[in-house]
Design a protein that fits this description.
Helices cover 74% and strands 0% of the residues. The protein has 233 residues and is mainly α. The relative contact order is 0.13.
């Protein structure tokens, strides 16, 4: 058991040895905070509350996500929401990569940094401190993270998502598949590393947890299907 734990935490020991305890702690926290606050910039809330003057969280499912925004407002501003949620995920992961590059760490630390930043970006999107900890469900930002981590993982989660939504018109069903597929994709295509797998399971688990209400409605046959007929803004 102790040998397995030592193997699991070996990358952390190596990181601390490379940069020192204090610097390691500072940079780990810096990546987490930067990614979290980037994640807090929720496109659906910003556009609805400050441009449309009509908070998306008071409509439909009450969720500050792309699907609820599209169902409620539709229109070209949906593209602004997409841009915001994609951009913040890209910036969060890029910042983590920049830190690893500036510290001149070995290439394998890029993967740890990406997954670490991804987790906190998703936490910021789902629980934004500046919007009362009430955000979205993390699908668009999570999908962007998958693209930045590995194209094969992205192909698995996006492919499954699009196929299920096209066949059933249940966005939630495609989202749940994508979330569940993310750790499997990580295992098969990216790494068997224990820390990476823990972070991947946390990422997928967060999204599934946020869809717990959708799961109940799917089981009861009460979930709403996606419709392309929306009002314009």
């Amino acid at each position: 058991m102790s040998e397995r734990l030592n193997e699991l935490f070996r990358p952390i020991y190596m990181f601390i040895m490379a940069v020192g305890w204090m610097h390691a702690l500072v940079w780990i926290i810096a990546i987490a905070l930067a990614a979290y606050f980037l994640g807090c910039f929720n496109g659906a809330v910003i556009v609805s509350k400050y441009i449309l003057r009509d908070d998306i969280r008071t409509h439909g499912s009450g969720n500050a996500g792309l699907t609820n925004f599209y169902r409620t407002f539709g229109g070209k501003l949906t593209l602004v929401v997409i841009f915001c949620d994609v951009l913040k995920a890209v910036l969060a992961v890029w910042f983590a990569v920049l830190v690893v590059t500036l510290l001149a760490l070995p290439p394998q630390y890029l993967l740890y940094a990406k997954y670490w930043a991804a987790l906190f970006c998703l936490l910021g999107h789902i629980f934004p401190c500046m919007f009362g900890f009430k955000g979205g469900k993390g699908i668009l930002s999570g999908g962007t993270i998958a693209i930045m981590i590995d194209w094969r993982v992205a192909l698995l989660v996006w492919g499954g998502f699009l196929i299920l939504v096209a066949l059933t018109r249940y966005v939630s069903l495609g989202s749940i598949f994508a979330a569940a597929g993310f750790p499997f994709g990580t295992w098969f295509f990216v790494s068997h590393d224990g820390i990476i797998m823990v972070l991947a399971v946390c990422l997928g688990g967060l999204v599934i947890y946020m869809h717990r209400g959708n799961i109940q409605r799917l089981l009861k046959g009460e979930e709403r299907r996606l419709s392309l007929h929306k009002k314009s803004t």
